[in-house]
Specification:
Elements (H helix, E strand, L loop, with lengths): L1 H13 L2 H7 L2 H15 L6 H15 L3 H15 L4 H6 L6 H16 L6 H14 L3 H5 L4
Helix pairs in contact: 2-5, 3-4, 3-7, 4-7, 7-8
Amino acid sequence: MAFALLDQIRSIFDGDPGVRKVADDPVLSAELLMLFRMILADGTVSESEMVAFRRICREAFGIPESSIDSVIEYLNEFGYETNGSQAIAEFRDLDIERRKLLARHMAEIAKADSQLAETEVRLLRRTLDLLDISPVDVVKPEE
């Protein structure tokens, strides 16, 4: 209980730890922006897409559930300053496995609502081209 209170007090003075994690890591910020763009690609935000986004934030990036709403708010503010090409540029020099992970996360978001819109397919295809990744690498299970 005392630790939770200390964490809340520290959060007030230091900012949200999840937001700090995202803000301090340009690649993580870029990936989350691309995932958010995938959520918005079909023009609607479905609950299943948000569930997938939240799960990816927690499991793949260690962002606490309590921080995710603040991270989304940060991305909304930061996203106006960054376009998709700028976000993708953060990934071009990373190793192929890290680039494949971005593509897999994007595909997971796109499929979350059980409907693949043409706009989602185009965004994913363009991202794969820019990252020099084959579509086979996105559907291939991780080893």
